[in-house]
Amino acid sequence: MPFTSLGLSPAMLRAVSAKAYSVPTPIQASAIPVALQGRDVLGSAQTGSGKTVAFALPLLQQFEASTMEVPRKVGALILVPTRELATQVGEEIRVLAQHMTRPIKVSIVFGGVSINPQMMRLRGGTDIVVATPGRLLDLIDHNALSIRSVRTLVLDEADRLFDLGFAEELGRIVRLMPTQRQSLFFSATFPPAVQALANTLLRDPVRVEVLPEPESAPDIVQRAIAVDTGKRTQLLRHLIGLNHWSRVLVFVATKHAAEMVADKLRKARIYAEPFHGELSQGKRTQVLADFKASRLKVVIATDVAARGLDIAQLPVVVNFDLPRSAVDYTHRIGRTGRAGERGLAVSFVSADSEAHFKLIQKRQGLDMALESVDGFEAQEAAPAAALSVSGEVVDHANGGVKGKRPSKKDKLRAMQGQSQGQ
Ligand code: AMP
Predict the structure, then answer these.
(1) Which residues are CB-contacts of 196 (< 8 A; sequence separation ≥ 6)?
(2) Which of 58, 149, 162, 324 has its Cα between 20 and 30 A from that of 406?
(3) Whose CA is nearest to atom 21 of ligand 1?
(4) Does the beta carbon of 338 sit less than 6 angstroms from any atom of ligand 1?
(5) What is residue 142's DSSP assignment?
(6) SS3 of 212, please?
(7) What are the tens digits of pLDDT across the range 193-219?
C-alpha cells in the first residue's frame, strides 16, 4: 500500500518523499487513515516500527485546517518518557512540518536543564509541545504554558512513562486538558496499569497492533568474534577501518570504559565520543546531534544512556562488553536494522566472558560460531571456576563471586593435595 492511499494531504506526501520513505510501515498503514478521521488510536508498537511518523503526519495535517491564533495556542501535546526521545520526536516533527504552508512551532521541553531558556522560547505561544511530564507541569505551574486548548494528545511509550514513575504526573496533566480531544496512545507492552490508563483516556479507540511478522522482522546479521580482553580496542579500530564503517554504536559496561575506549580511538584519529549518564544534558544532546549528522563516527555508550536512543540508518552495533542479560542483548542489537534496513551486530567475546555469552545465546535461541580475525586470534584460555586468594569460588565468566567459603575440611584436603603433588 503506497503513502498516497492513506488520505494524506499534498504537504504531508511531500514530507514523506523528502524523507525518502517509499512505503508506509505496517503501523503507519493502519494508524494514519483512522487518526485522520479523528478517531482515538490504541497502538501496540515497538520503537523502530515507524510510530513517530504514524502519529506525526495526521497530527500535522490537522493544523492545515486550523487558522493560526496570536499568541499561538497549544493544539497538540506529545508526552514522552525521556529527554532523548523528546528531542528525537520533536526534531522529526519539525522536519516533517517544513513542507506545510503555515509555519508550525514545535517546542521541546524536558527536565534536568534550566527552565528559563525553555520559558523564553515559549513566549508568543506554541503549536505543538513535545514534553516529559515533570517539566511540562513545572512550565504550567510557572504560567509559561497552558494545555487547555489541546486538541490532540499523544502518549508515546506509555509503558516506559509508567516504569519511570510518571503515573501521578500523567493524571494531573490529563485533568488540565479539555475532555473533547483526540488521543493517540502508543505502547510496546500493556501491563494492567497501562491498560487501565488507556481505558480512561481513550474513547472507542481503534486498536492498531503490529505483531512482528517474519518478513518485517529486523534484518540483523549477528556475529561473534573471539578476542582477548586487552586487544578489543585494537580490533575495533581494525574493523572500523577494514569495513569502512561510517557510524558505529559501541556498548560498554561502565562509564569509565566509555571514556577510555573513546579516548583511545580519538588518539588513533577516529572521531569518537562517550555517551553515559554522567555527562551533562548539553553534552549528550551535542553528541547525539553530531552522531546523527555524521560529524561523529563512533559513540561509546552504556546501556542506561543508550535506552530509547534512535538513530536512523545505524548500520553497526558492537558489544565491546557483553550485556548483562539476554534482554539487554535484544535491546542493544535492536538499535540497528530498523524499519526495513539491514543491520550488523558484532559481539566481542573473550575467554572470561565466553560462558556468559553461551548463556545469552541459549536464552535467545541462538547458536553463533565464534569467529576469529587475522592478527587478533584469542590467546587466553577460558578460566575454569577457581579458588581465589580469599578462598571464595570465583566465577570468572560472570565476573562475580559465587558459592560459599570452603570448609576447614576442604582447605585441609587442598593442602594435602598440594603436598602430595610436590
Ligand atoms: P520510530 O519507530 O518512530 O522510532 O521510527 C524508527 C525509524 O524508522 C526512524 O528512524 C524513522 O526515520 C524510520 N522510518 C519511519 N517511517 C519509515 C518508512 N515508512 N520507511 C522507512 N523508514 C521509516
Answers:
(1) none
(2) 324
(3) 21
(4) yes
(5) T
(6) coil
(7) 899 999 999 999 999 987 654 444 567
Who's near 306: CB < 8 A, 6+ residues apart?
Answer: 249, 251, 275, 332, 335
Specify the DSSP class assigned to residue 380: P
289 Cβ contact partners less than 8 Å away, ≥ 6 residues apart: none
Q: Tens of pLDDT along 27-65?
A: 999 999 999 999 999 999 877 789 999 999 999 999 998
Would you state the cell numbers that stand for residue 13, as one nine-digit string? 506526501
Q: How far is the CA of 33 from the centre of ligand 1 (A)?
A: 18
Q: Give the Cα separation of 179 and 150 in Å (integer).
A: 9
pLDDT tens figures, 89-120: 999 999 999 999 999 999 999 998 999 999 99
Q: What are phi and psi of 212, to 5 degrees?
A: -60, 110
Q: pTM for the full model?
A: 0.59
Contact 367, 221 (CB under 8 A): no
Specify the 3-state DSSP secondary structure of 146: coil
Q: How far apart are CA 27 and CA 45, in angstroms?
A: 7
To test the pocket of ligand 1, the residue of 6, 338, 341 to mutate (highest count of ligand atoms within 8 Å of its CB) is 338
| Residue 78 near residue 89, CB atoms below 8 Å | yes
Sheet holding 106-109, edge to edge: 106-109, 128-131, 76-79, 152-155, 182-187, 41-44, 206-209
CB of 339 within 6 A of ligand 1: the answer is yes
For the beta sheet containing 393-395, the strands, ordered from the edge strand earlier in sequence to the opposite edge, are: 386-387, 393-395, 400-402
Q: What is the DSSP string of 166-197?
A: -HHHHHHHHHTS-SSSEEEEEES---HHHHHH
Rounded Cα–Cα distance for residues 115 and 138 (Å): 8
Instruction: Identify the bridge partners of residue 276 per DSSP, sorted by sequence position.
Output: none
Could you tell me the domains of the chain? 3-210 (3.40.50.300), 219-382 (3.40.50.300), 388-422 (no CATH)
Helices then strands, counting H and E runs in the chain, come out as 16, 17
